[in-house]
């Protein structure tokens, strides 16, 4: 008798334990979806006392998920941005890297390059970009498909960062073209820029940076002891050259200003359905690559980004009214410490040479199978083998892969090497890194070997980078703020993939087609 009623008792217990208020909030008029490029989770903690505006408001009044991670390898910009509002891993989305070798065209392509599109607003006839390589839908796509009369726009300095979160059906994606110093889009979206964007280009806000010097945000004007971070004046040997507009706080200012104008000019939040504005602040990434996470300029640009986000939230809230704005913030990836900095503090670290790695694999293949061009392309440490040569020599592709893999495994400070054959047939350890590699694998676009270096080791001669499955690259902030969101800190582990299905539930739209996440209902107040 007890055994007969046990299932019913378990169901009753589950029902009683379920959160009775796990109901999505009412649909907002505007979703403001923010990405900070290369913003590790610990920047939220390390610089917390320095935030006085947007990040402070989000941390004080938002639902802060303190153990949020990217769950795909590699942890790079295109993958992070495509995941943000699709919820898909690269194995579903097709965005397997920032760029990869396309065997059909025998060329290296980017995540958003599109031979059918041309640039609009920049140099006439220049190649354009689009989301056509993205194989899945996004939150914005599903909102539009649901029949809501909504507007979806993406803004960033980088084309991939503006395009991939916004999706296929976006009304526009705008990015900054360094060759023309103009805000641009592509023929995928429109034939000509809207007048309000043309007006911005005519004003030339980037001219403000000519000859400018970046001083710490908390330095006093005229302070002779204030040490600048960099200058826009080339050839000044006393101060580091910023390198470009993008690699300075002024790049983020341009992004905020264009997003600010988009809210007004495009009437964001004033349509019948839920509008979506995706904004990615890129300059943090350029600065971080150059100097690493421990440099004072990273703190400084984080503070400045906090203030820009505050201005953007205020403008969005002013446009749609209190209670009608939902804000979500995350980052596309973290970053590794500069190896020399790590070594100085008795931590592991060092630099690797991807060209030497490629040469070692080619030499091993030549020694066993004869001379030939064995690698047709190598994007970083991701090799693509010459399939025609392999066929002409009547070799087994799996055997060739394993020969090259053995050479790579002997390379100093290589953590793991997996062949395409091993991954396809599940012949791999399914630990944390292994799962992330599988999530990032799409056979038609993937390299023939997946090579992961040891923790804190980098391919690159200067600065730092990211891309590994380790926590310093995967752990990022995830924060929601808005009506019906219960504020506080949530320490259950979540994935960045959970953002998209959560937003879809709130917006009353279907979950994106490739979404691998869940709805973060624990933060819903039921109001």
Task: Describe this entry's structure for a reader.
With 527 residues, this protein is an alpha/beta fold. The chain folds into two domains: 30-95 and 107-208 and 245-338 and 469-523, Alkaline Phosphatase, subunit A, CATH 3.40.720.10; 350-459, 2-Layer Sandwich (Gyrase A, domain 2). 35% of the residues lie in helices and 20% in strands. Strands 1, 2, 5, 6, 7, 8, 9, 12, 13, 20, 21 and 22 form a twelve-stranded mixed β-sheet that branches. Helix 10 packs antiparallel against helix 11. The longest helix is centred in the middle third of the chain and has 25 residues, at 296-320. The chain is globular and about 70 Å long. The chain starts with a helix and ends in a 20-residue tail after the last helix. 50% of the residues are buried.
Short description:
With 527 residues, the chain is of the alpha/beta class. The chain folds into two domains: 30-95 and 107-208 and 245-338 and 469-523, Alkaline Phosphatase, subunit A; 350-459, Gyrase A, domain 2, CATH 3.30.1360.
